[in-house]
Amino acid sequence: MTDTPRLEIRNLMRSFGGRRVVDDVSLSVMPGQVTCLLGPSGCGKSTTLRMIAGIETQESGSIFVDGEMICDGKYRVPPEGRGIGLMFQDFALFPHLSVAGNVAYGLKGRASKNRARVEELLGKVGMLSHIDNYPHELSGGEQQRVALARALAPRPRIMLMDEPFSGLDDRLRDDIRDETLDVLKAEGTAVLLVTHEPGEAMRMADEIALMRNGKIVQRGAPYNIYNTPVDKEAAGFFSDINSVSAKVNGALAQTDFGQFLVPGMADGTVVDIVIRPQHVKIDFDRHGKGPNATIAEGTPVRGTVKRARFMGFESLVEFSLDDGTEMKAVIPSVFLPKKGTILWLMIRRDRCFIFPRTA
Predict the structure, then answer these.
(1) Which residues contact 264 (CB under 8 A, 6 or more apart)?
(2) How many domains does the chain have?
(3) Which of 89, 111, 183, 194 has most Cβ atoms within 10 angstroms of its Cβ?
(4) Domain boundary among 235, 267, 296
């Protein structure tokens, strides 16, 4: 087991038209690890990937593969010499080549040895029976499997994937993602995946690097980055959120939901108390009767139902509080109260995030 990252990038910078698109980005990926660059469109994810691949040139910073520098401000290994595989949204199989020809493309050496590698990979991705077919005879999901086999054929040490599954329908996408992950891990390939979909990142990644405005703002395992977001915007990127504002006084923030501890924040600081909809609770015991005590979850607050929708596994209920604050609650069952219904809401303190307001 090596401690040397398969891929390491240090302080990458890139600008276009005077705008800093990638701003001091550093990360590392170990062999067999899947790291996801996650963020909204235009945040610098794809440009980072293209610099690693050698398609774009960084203004500064360096890139290492297995501890050896392949690129910095002066020295640059060409793309074909980096041992890096690429999979993009447009996987672009060669239409004039068979499945076998596509997978063998770029392989060097004896034809018999190459044929064995082609058959091995097509077997792994469940496409061996289509070895003599042509791309136009395949479905989108089948073409995706062939594209994966083609990218893996030269045994790249690193695989870069830019939104590779976005063209597939939801059910097929889940299957292909899981199969792809199994094959990549079995090959021991270090994977850097770019996506703007939090669900895809949570499903595939061992580590997520959340990007915003050209910078990595938070890195961590999916569980940690979801449950300990660095700021309000990070919390909101992974799910809907509710937000209640308050002002700090004596390390406490007073809200209609009760007091919240905010140690270390100066008096007068305006904070946002953030809670996800699934952690908003309805106090059915006080339904229509009003609160009579402060309980473990805090003080119940009256909400008026604006709309309710069944989402398949749960119900989403939207409320308006008496002060005009909008709040959403997710109920893990069929629960569809009529518009105008009065219900009492509580928020779990152990599931709240408190951030100083930045704007």
Answers:
(1) 251
(2) 2
(3) 194
(4) 235
User: How distant is the alpha carbon of residue 43 from its chain centre?
Assistant: 13
Give the whole-angstrom CA distance, residue 261 versus residue 174.
Answer: 41
pLDDT digit string, tens, across residues 87-139? 876 667 899 999 999 999 878 776 777 889 999 999 988 899 999 999 999 98
pLDDT of amino acid 299: 87
CATH number of the domain residue 311 falls in: 2.40.50.140
Beta bridge partners of 27: 9
What is the side-by-side order of every strand in the sheet holding 19-29? 19-29, 7-16, 60-65, 68-71
Same domain, 220 and 269: no
**163-199 per-position pLDDT tens digit:** 887 777 777 778 888 888 888 888 889 999 999 999 9
Is residue 100 located within the same domain as residue 66?
yes
How far apart, in whole angstroms, are the C-alpha atoms of residue 13 and residue 9?
11
- Alpha helix (H) residue ranges in the chain: 45-53, 99-104, 111-124, 140-152, 170-187, 198-204, 222-227, 232-238
Fill in the DSSP letter of residue 295: B
